[in-house]
Amino acid sequence: MVGRPDKQHTTNNKQRAGVQLPPRIPSATIRAMRWLLHGPMTPAVADALRRHGHALPEDAAIPVDPPAPVAEVLKTAKARQLDILTTDPSLAAAPFELDYWFDRSIVFLQLEGGDIEQDDAVDRLFARYKRLTPGRLYTVTASRVKVRQLPGKKQ
To answer: How many independent structural domains does the chain possess?
Structure first.
């Protein structure tokens, strides 16, 4: 036989032995995202993230207050490998204005506010997108979720 007879032999042995791989469970393969919360948010947002299986690490309490420069917030989140959830429009626009390559996800809650509304917005986001793609800006409004690609890496 030409090629790799040992590979054919192994496949036949597995079939004869009745070895069957377990089915892949999608939720088990999705890793928890780590979030930096930026801007005025209710505690319900953190609860909603935890409910969807995501983490808010203790070091996510970065000494970066909302009035801090947005470039500093982006650099800190990138260095600590945190995705950003914000209510600050200037932070959501910063990667485009600064032409900054941010290789994580940014979620911008563009809402009037309120405990239930922010909580529902996070639920709608993860109902629509099970796993967020790095390098994307997700803008969650009262009625929909918009996705925009962030600026890419310079060549």
So the answer is: 1
